Amino acid sequence: MMKATIVKPALNGKNYAPKLLIATINCVAMTERGLREIVTVRCYMAQGGSVVYCSLWIHTGTLHCAGHGQAGGGGYHKASAAFDVAICSAGIQLDESINAAGDSAMDDAVRAIASALGYDDIYLVRN
Q: What's the pTM?
């Protein structure tokens, strides 16, 4: 099971709109106040499709941090590579790399981040 550590929370998020939104992962947790979105991942693609951009937003009652990343080139899973960079940019460290590891690795990373934030009763929504 992947593990995340909040090392040094940073506010490095970027909103890449109006680039083309290609994927989102929303992590919703059950809290004492009901369901709350705690982690948001958004992946965008530039016109022409050579670069994928990723934004990570984390918002709990006590912690707010964000990061961004990008990956270009070809022949690998660019969304997970960009997400790996965004995680580091937000001040979070994973115990294993998700660089170019695919969609399931991205989901595992979001679960690990939620667990590091103290949430176990979570739901992932992919769009």
A: 0.96
Paired tokens of 72: 């270009």
The radius of gyration of the chain's CA atoms, rounded to the nearest angstrom, is 14
Q: Diameter of the chain by CA atoms?
A: 45
Total domains in the chain come to: 1
Q: What letter does residue 106 receive in the DSSP assignment?
A: H
In single-letter form, the type of residue at position 29 comes to A
Structural domain harbouring 47: 4-126
The rounded distance, in Å, linking the Cα atoms of 89 and 8 is: 10
pLDDT one digit per residue (tens) for the chain, 127 residues: 999 999 999 999 999 989 999 999 999 999 888 999 999 999 999 888 789 999 999 999 889 999 999 999 888 999 999 999 999 999 999 999 999 999 999 999 999 999 999 999 999 999 9
Q: Report the C-alpha dihedral over residues 2, 121, 126, 15, rounded to 10 degrees.
A: -80
